[in-house]
Every structure is written in C-alpha cells, then in structure tokens.
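Progress report, Aim 2. The chain analyzed during this reporting quarter is listed below.
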Amino acid sequence: MAELRLCSLFAKGMDFFRHIYSEGLSRLLFHSIPTVLIVDALGREDNPLRISRFRNHLPGTTHSETTIATIQSWIEECATTHEKCSRQIGHAHRPVVYPKRLLDLNEGAVILRENIQHEQYACLSHCWGANSSIVKTTTQNLDKLMTQVPWDHLTATFQDAIVICRRLGIYYLWIDSLCIIQDSDDDWKDQAAQMADIYENAFATVAVTKSRDGSEGCFAETDAKYLSKLVPGYQDIYVRQELPRFPSHWTEFDLPEQKGQWPLLNRAWVYQEMRLSSRVLHFCAEEVVLLCRTARRSESGCNDDNFVDGRNFKATQYSSIPYWTLQEKPRLLWYRTVQEYSRLQLTFESDKMAALAGLTQRLESLRSDDRYMVGLWERSLLLDLLWMVWPSPTPGRPRIARYPSWSWASVNSQVMWEHTVESTFQSVLIREIRFVSYGPACMGESSEAAISLEAPLMDASPLLATFRNRRTTRADRSTDTIAANLMQNIVGGVSRSSRQQSHIQADELFISDYKVDCITHESATSHNPSDSSGYVILLGFDTKINAIFAGIHVRRKCGSDCYERVGHVQISHQSLEQRRLDTQARTMWDYSSISVKEIIEGLPTSTIMLV
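Predicted structure tokens for the chain:
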C-alpha cells in the first residue's frame, strides 16, 4: 500500500517524465515547483516504478550520536569489505613511516608526543584562515606542549576534531600547525617532504570542508529546508529540498552552484591531502560525507556513489584510488594533476612546490628512471615545456622569482597542456641541462636551473604582428585558393622528396593562438605581450587529430645572454584552418600537416640557454 500511495503522490505532481537509457535511471520533474525532490528509479519490465533506494533522514546536526554511529558503520564497511582501502594496498614494498609527532588524546589532557609507532592515528585537514590565530608549535613552546596542550588555546576546529576522534575510538591525531615546528625551516622541510607517508598511513582524515578558518569548527546544524517533512495526508511519505551535490571533480568548483560551498577544497595544500588519504570524513555544512578509494557515502544518501561502477567513476575523485594503480600514462597523469592543482589557492607562493611534494614522491615511483625538475620531468622535458596558462593569467601578478621561467610553477595561474601533442620536432635538441636541487627533489627548490636548447628560432615580432592583424581582419589569401593548389599538387603526385619545394613556404606560417604567461604591463593582454621581441621555438606537434604545432615565446633576459619564457604559441598555415570530413579534403589536410612539419624541421637552428 505504501508503494501505491507514493505512486499516487508522484502522479499528482508529475509534469514531465524522461527515461535516461544510457544510465538506466528515470527522472521525475514536478510542475510549478523548483527542484525540491528528485527521485531516481530503476525501470524494469515487471515494475515500471521501482525505488531502488530510499534516502535517509538527517539528524539535524553533525554533532549527533546518530552521525557518529553512521560514520562508524561506514568505516567498518570500508575496513572489512573494501580491498582497495587496505592501508598497505599498493605500497607493501615500502615500510610504514609514522609522523614524527602526534597529539596523544588518550587522557583528559592533550599532549604532543614524539616517535609514536604502530598506533592508529587520524589527520586533520583544515583552513588556517586569512588572519590565523591558531596555536602553533614553535621552538619556544615545544617543551610546554609536550607536557600539555592547553584546551582553551585550541580553536573550535581543533577541539571538535579531538572530540570526533575520541568518539570514533581514535586516540592519536596529526595537526600540521601543532605537529610541525613552525619556526624551524629544517623541521618544516623534513615534515613537508613526508606528507605522502603521513596522509597515506593515517587511518582516516577528518576534513573540515565547510569552514574557512578555525573559529567555525567541524560541526554544523542542518538547514531546515534539508530536513525531511511529512507530506500532509500521508503517514509514511516525506519530502525535503535536494541537498548540495558533493563535487566529483576538482574542476566543478567553478560552477556557480558550487561557489563557496566547500571552502577547504579550494586550498592548494588540501589537494594532495585528499588524493593521498585512504579515507576522508568531510564535515560539510549540512551532512557528513565519507570518501574512500572504493565508494562515497553520505548521511542523506543523496551523495552516495560506488567508484567501482564504471558509469559513475571519475579518476579525480578525492581519495579515489592510489596513484600507483592508475591505468594512465604517467606523463598525462602529471599534466592532469598540475591542471587541477594549479587553480587552487595558496597563502604563501613559496609553498607552491612543497604543497605538491607528497604526490610528486608517489609519481616518482612510476618514473623511476626519470628526474624531477621544478614541476617538469627530464625524459619528457620538451613536451612538459609546452604548458600554457588557462584560461588567462591573473593581471598584475608577476612571476614567482624563485622558480625558473620555463616551469609552470613560476606563474600565479592555472595551467594546462594540449594532451594530443605527443611528438617533438627532430630539429629540436636538448644540448645541456644545468640543474642542481637542494633538499629533496620533490620540494622543487634549486640553486641552478638552465636548459640549453638547439632549435629553429623564428623571429617573434612579425609573427605576433600578423597574429594581431588576423584577430581583427581576414587573411588576404583565401582558403579556397590554397585548397585548389593543394589538390592540384596532390593529384599530380607530389613526391616526398619534393614536398619542401611545394607551395607552402616558411614565411606563410602564422601564429594561430598565443597565451601570455603573465600580465604585468597595462598594455599587455592574455593574447598580446607588451614586448614582441624574441623568438618563437616550436617544440611539439600533433598531426593526427588537430594539426597543432606548439612552441614557446622566449625573450632575452635583461642584462644576460640567457632567455626567459614569456608565452605559449601555436603555429598554423591557412590550408589547415578549415578541416573537412570528405576523403579528398582529408587527404589535402594530411598533406598540409606533413608539409608544415617538414618545413619547420628544415629551418636553420641556433642554440640558446633557457632560464
């Protein structure tokens, strides 16, 4: 009878019904009401409306005993049934390394202790806040805190995290500000380089996802609109407004509906904390969400997901699966990692490489025959140099001087790569790499970082002048005329040896896209540098999919014979601007791509030092 009453309720409000065949789900939309109820039903022949899973009532506060009991059931399920979530899965060949310091929560007083081994511990992931007044361990108060950490010195977030751990039966806790000596460079660098071990080996990470600083705490009262309400006239049917959807991908935070929902997940340091942790408890504004390497669980049931389900799995889920088990090329995995990480916020620009050091260490295990150099890798260096600022640089933010100009770490913007560019020009050679790192390589600090390149150097000034004109006017030479000439040559049987003597000339190449690395002058824009001097060096290409010929714009460094990178460039030819699908036009397009590539490789070369 309950099922019939539920069907009756749906029928009264139903305005539209759509079956999504690709996902096996049905969605009901109700007329005259904003989205207050979404029902996902599994359509079957013997039951046209079968509710596969009812949602859960929320207790009203994440401080409740109900919430703790729910978390305990999730952890038990994860620890006993999820093979991928075993602490040793994927890195049994490495010994377990424990944090140098942990907070001991066993007694009433909280005590900072050193060299705790073989004990289950949790990590705290939190926002320090813009004007942080959180308690920190220093060389001056270390001995005092190892006697007792005063409770009233702890922020609401720290106090709540301790309460959560004790209620879950976890009696050791790692908090960065307390477990790292903040005024000791040596201790900070040593512990920052161990972040991978610290978060991987934790039993769980408590993430204060809702809070902007330590004063806001971990717990929250659920907004009344998300609490279930009994439908008048029914005894067992409840409705509530749909809860915020927990993001499945790091790029989802740019969506309007996600703005401000998850402050913690906009922080750069948190990226590796989420990716390295085996299980994360997200304390959100309305509910608690667990993410592990196998599944996502939520108090409401609205954010539940199983990552083993190929239909829903996304490789960039927080705490999804370890880096060393991903079925992805290490180079592309790194590009994706940097693209996601580089959009996030840092308080101190000097932390840019350190905040990624843990993930860098783990990726080194996939590139054991490679060398890491301030965000790039030696064996794929020419392709790695082809990073570009995306979508545009932040005006008025200069380069970070501590990093070389050829590294994406030197810009205060999100970066990305054209993933289809997988080949390099034969005419480009790395003659010498002068690179000396100090400290662990994963920390990205270097005393010398210079690359000697032998390559064709194309004068940037005329290319950029033509690029500006093309953005406002059409080219003089029409595509149809070039296409006709191309087809005539193809039909006439142009041999490979004569292609460089064909109609395509080096001076017909032009810049099809330009992205400046930094905007520090009022006359510059994201597509127009303030100074057009220097050279364009083409490094990589894709002639299979998009006919991309990509390179960098370099300019002589003031007072030096060395060159600095200033932008990313794509070169094209008019014959490649319009790609048609018919066989004849495709043949023409392929021929043009090869011709452009060979002309570029046939240009005279020179050697420069890039710093």
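Residues 16-37, 39-52, 309-321, 474-502 have pLDDT under 50 and may be disordered. The first helix runs from residue 2 to 13. These observations will guide the mutagenesis work planned for the next reporting period.
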